[in-house]
Amino acid sequence: MKTFIFTCFISLLLCAGVAQAQQKTDSASAKKPSAVKTDSATVHLKNDTLKIHQTYPAGLRIGIDISRFAMMFFQPYRTDVNFTADARINKDLYAVADFGVNRTKHSDTNYTYKGGGAFIALGVDYNLLKKQSIHENNMFFVGARYGVAMFNYEFPTYTIYDNYYGNVTGSVPKTNEMAHWLEFAVGLRTEVLKNFYMGWSLRVRTLLNSKIIDGDYAPLVIPGYGAGDKKAVFDFNYTLSYLIPLYKLKAPSAPIAVPKKKK
Amino acid sequence: MNSMFKLCAGLLLLATTFYACDDQTETCDKAFRASVRMRFKYPRPIDGRVVDTTLPYVTIKSMMGDTVAKNQTGLTGVALPLNGVIDSTWYYFKADSTVLGDTILFRYKRHQQFISPGCGFATYYHLDTVITTRHAIDSIQIINKEVTNNEDIHLYLFY
């Protein structure tokens, strides 16, 4: 039931996000003049050809994934703190880094579990919003990432119940592991206040070294990846981020031929 | 088109959220208790072809002294649990009240396996040898040495 309520809440946020991004995009396309801002443009005239060199602000956008805090309510055994950072490379392409830490602690009548570690995922996002001005950083994106996690885990106690021959008890000592995966993302990021962004994304991850899962003792959680006993997982995140405007990028310029005056 | 896109995105997010929020430790979806599963076989006198057979009155006693089955009719096979505490288990096996019973001894290696966050651990077995007396049983054929699931057949008992 709590999963259902949370899902409805997330869907409302999604609809609000999509509507806002669309509004922004529409207004951007309506305000055509912003695409030809002159305050940051330099004009060169050479051999009857007009060249406009235009720049636009870019920077480092740093965010936190707030969905991980909600996740603690549904999966109380895991604590995750995930951050995201992206930087604009050109008009449509952004370099992305997701990183964070995880701690997992579980105890029931079958076993106890302790684990923790950190991860980083690097990749790119490609903005599919074509109508907006290059001065905006709103995104409807698809992206790909390569992720690596270093983590350790142990089962301090476990019990296999057998009321005929007798219970079997044991423990699995601490193991250090590395996992790496490929991740594909689709999502949205919109500017809600100046330089403040909200966004969501859906993720699908596929584990590249499934040796961990195929072994005798699969981990409960792989930091940054998710369920430690699955070769592919789906996930979502909801980020709040702030753009630090650090640099300017040069917009692609197309030469415009100037028509000659008739004599 | 635009509302269609929003609907699709909403449904996708809904499904993903359900999936991602699921507490895996709450439900056990792969309940497992390793047992050796056997089928009774018999060579037909007419053509010698080996076929499944039904034993008339099966009585099985375990190494703990309990009677697992007594004069049970219509059995074409049985599943017997292995002892997860030691590396061998034996059963006394009587196919009919008119014949002498046999003792079947299973020797195996054990290892514990994490099944799933909801189910916890289970013991997997690797059968090394199966030894039997030959009062009624003619021979034994090991089909599968790995006792790791609830479906596989591991032994044929030939009468």
Automatic annotation (TrEMBL), chain A:
**Could you tell me the keywords of this UniProt record?**
Signal
Q: Which InterPro entries match?
A: DUF6048
Q: Which residues form the signal peptide?
A: 1-21
Question: What domain of life does the UniProt record list for this protein's source?
Answer: Bacteria
Among the Pfam families in the record, one is: DUF6048
Keyword Signal tagged:
yes
Protein name per the record: Outer membrane protein with beta-barrel domain
From TrEMBL, chain B:
Record keyword Signal present: yes
Which residues, if any, are the signal sequence?
Answer: 1-20
A Pfam short name: DUF6452
Keywords assigned by UniProt, alphabetized: Signal
Concerning PROSITE patterns, the annotation shows:
PROKAR_LIPOPROTEIN (PS51257)
Q: Which InterPro entries match?
A: DUF6452
Q: What is this protein called?
A: Uncharacterized protein
Q: What is the lineage of its organism?
A: Bacteria, Pseudomonadati, Bacteroidota, Chitinophagia, Chitinophagales
